[in-house]
Amino acid sequence: PYTTLFRSMMEFWIFLLIMVLLIPTTMIGFGWLFFKNPPKEINSTFGYRTRRSMMNKETWEFAHRYAGKMWCICGGILLPVSIVAMLFVLKKDSDTIGTACGIITLVQMLPLIGTIILTERALKRRFK
After folding, report:
1. Helix (H) or strand (E) holding 100
2. DSSP 43-88
3. pLDDT of 54-98, one tens digit each?
4. Using CA atoms, how far apart are residues 65 and 85, in angstroms rounded to an integer?
5. In whole angstroms, what is the distance from residue 52 CA to residue 54 CA?
6. Residue 20: helix, strand or coil by DSSP?
7. What are phi and psi of 53, to 5 degrees?
8. Global pTM?
9. DSSP 3-state assignment of 105?
10. How far apart are CA 18 and CA 80, in angstroms?
């Protein structure tokens, strides 16, 4: 059912590998950007935007540097782990590959969301 758009199972696997790598590469890219060069102005469009992070310029910069560093670390761990996990389903059927991709993506969401919790705790500790 998953392979109607693909000529081979390998094309399907490669497509899903690319999809699985989107979260870790995005975490690394935006993490590096936020850590090295947080958005200059507090805004409601782009950046790490929570009530605590947007209180003032100092909390804004701290939140971006903290979350950025965490995203770089988590993304750097998730990237190779995700590749290895996908290698386990390299020559499997489309249902198995699709299920594995879904599970990997759900697991990737845990550090993505966890970073928000840790950043908010760090903001609360640092800026009472």
Report:
1. helix 94-126
2. -SSSS---TTTTSSHHHHHHHHHHHHHHHHHHHHHHHHHHHHHHHT
3. 999 999 999 999 999 999 999 999 999 999 999 999 989 989 999
4. 30
5. 5
6. helix
7. -70, -25
8. 0.88
9. helix
10. 13
Token duo for residue 50:
């929570």
Amino acid, res. 89: V
Does the pLDDT value for residue 2 go beyond 90?
Answer: no
12, 15, 107 from 90: Cα distances, Å: 10, 12, 19
Distance from C-alpha of 119 to C-alpha of 48, rounded to nearest angstrom: 10
Q: Check if the beta carbon of residue 28 is closer than 8 Å to that of residue 75.
A: yes
Q: Which tokens go with 98?
A: 């699709």
Share the mean pLDDT of the chain.
93
Sequence letter at residue 52:
R
